[in-house]
Design a protein that fits this description.
By secondary structure, the chain is an alpha/beta fold. The protein has 9 helices and 8 strands. Bound molecules: S-adenosylmethionine.
Length: 241
Amino acid sequence: MSTILSAGIVDAHLIEGTDAEPEIGHSSPVSSNQQSNHRQLAKIVSKHQKISYLRPIATFSRSEFDRIDEIVNASRSSVILDSGCGNGESSRSFAAAFPDKLVIGIDKSDARIARAEVGDTLPNLHFVHGDCVDLWRLAVQARWPVWRHLLLYPNPWPKAKHLQRRWHGHPVFKHLLALGGCLELRSNWEIYVSEFAAALEIAAAKYVPVKRFFADAPITPFERKYAASGHPLYRLQVQLD
Ligand SMILES: C[S@@+](CC[C@H](N)C(=O)[O-])C[C@H]1O[C@@H](n2cnc3c(N)ncnc32)[C@H](O)[C@@H]1O
């Protein structure tokens, strides 16, 4: 049985609060000029809740969305989104573990999506080359039945001036929340997860803990690299429906 299946919802193979030290690797921890949550976080998140985000949808995102939307509409399954799926390792594991769900891996990198598409075909696994900023808005409009949403090691944008490039500081955040489902965020930068938790309080009145965990069976290449480098890992889970 796969670790994900046996865990029910990916948790069982994560040892929370463990002191166990993974093997040391060669990745540097996130370095930032922030030592705590950004001072402008509440202001920015509140502002984004009040405005309509009108950036035009890119043509390539639209055509990719239409392709996958047909599959979603034709299926009776609910959806697991793996946003920023990289080489698709986690999408593939989830598709194998949950054959009754439609797993959709999204990444804006051509090269990563091309790598993701290499490997065994699974009938419930699909990859989309596109920008989440567009695809999430289209998926909300189309009312995709999202059951789980994975945000595994998003780019941290650690410079304070880049707050609005982090998902919780971006105007698309409210659309991300509107997608619904059980959202899981993982990062090797505690402040990213802590800010995301604070943004959830502001935007959705959801109060969720940030947990440190040890990935004894990493589910993505970045998780594997960070674990092997001895980085502490953090995550949160929130039910958005
Ligand atoms: C740090 S990597 C993590 C990849 C994978 N989840 C993992 O853990 O191995 C972040 C990924 O997010 C993708 N990404 C960043 N911004 C994106 C966006 N706006 N839309 C889609 N993908 C995005 C990048 O191309 C990259 O593959």
